[in-house]
């Protein structure tokens, strides 16, 4: 191998490793989540609203929040439990956001709806969304997407909007989060790409 092709190989390899690290983490395909989304969407259809599309980043965040709630006492579903998209009550919210590659500005119009149902009995979970104060959020055409997280007795539904402020998208179009170490790798790659041209 010539020195030149070796450095090309090194360059390609150097790109590959961070590229793999940057791939979004696959959201576990869980039957509970799919069934709940289906139930919520049937409810939406019955109200003449469009079904909610799956939002993977919101789902990642919902999983992180459900994980946090696991140790909390089970509370009844009331609108008071709804968390605004900015989630000030959660101490590690910024970490959860950066882990899921979400910019906080893109969470403002969203809403986080936690529910606790022992053993996550599917019918009870669904009615805790459709027959409590949460129903008002489901019956709202502003919301167009949803991410669902589950952990133990907790279920978290995050509703996303079609606007930027409720999209749960990353801040930059490249998906590079400058708040994390990965942001530095993104910058390094950008630099390399620009330099090689
Ligand atoms: C996020 O929102 C704040 C306050 O509205 C604004 O100052 C800031 O520039 C925004 N950041 C981005 C990346 O849009
Ligand atoms: C919500 O779930 C709880 C169980 O955690 C159940 O006792 C209650 O009846 C449910 N409420 C609705 C409106 O489905
Ligand atoms: C849903 O919202 C519409 C419009 O705001 C309202 O007219 C309707 O009564 C609501 N339905 C339910 C079941 O909450």
UniProtKB/TrEMBL annotation:
InterPro entries membership: At5g19230-like, At5g19230_dom
Position of the signal peptide: 1-29
Pfam families in the cross-refs: At5g19230
Segments crossing the lipid bilayer: 178-195
Domain Uncharacterized GPI-anchored protein At5g19230-like span(s) in chain numbering: 34-159
Keyword presence, Transcription: no
Keyword Ribosomal protein: no
Keywords: Membrane, Signal, Transmembrane, Transmembrane helix
Entries under PANTHER family matching the protein: GLYCOPROTEIN MEMBRANE GPI-ANCHORED (PTHR33976:SF2), OS07G0645000 PROTEIN (PTHR33976)
Record protein name field: Uncharacterized GPI-anchored protein At5g19230-like domain-containing protein
Organism: Punica granatum (Pomegranate)
């Amino acid at each position: 191998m010539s020195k030149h092709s070796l450095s090309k190989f090194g360059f390609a390899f150097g790109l590959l490793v961070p590229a793999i690290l940057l791939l979004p983490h696959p959201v576990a395909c869980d039957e509970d989540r799919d069934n709940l989304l289906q139930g919520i969407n049937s409810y939406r259809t019955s109200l003449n609203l469009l079904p909610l599309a799956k939002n993977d980043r919101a789902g990642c965040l919902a999983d992180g929040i459900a994980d946090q709630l696991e140790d909390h006492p089970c509370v009844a579903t009331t609108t008071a439990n709804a968390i605004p998209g900015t989630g000030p009550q959660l101490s590690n919210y910024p970490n959860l956001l950066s882990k899921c590659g979400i910019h906080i500005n893109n969470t403002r119009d969203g809403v986080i709806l936690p529910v606790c149902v022992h053993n996550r009995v599917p019918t009870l979970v669904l009615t805790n969304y459709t027959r409590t104060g949460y129903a008002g959020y489901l019956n709202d055409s502003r919301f167009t997407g949803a991410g669902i997280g589950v952990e133990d007795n907790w279920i978290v539904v995050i509703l996303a909007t079609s606007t930027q402020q409720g999209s749960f998208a990353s801040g930059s179009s490249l998906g590079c989060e400058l708040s994390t170490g990965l942001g530095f790798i993104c910058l390094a790659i950008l630099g390399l790409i620009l330099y090689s041209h």
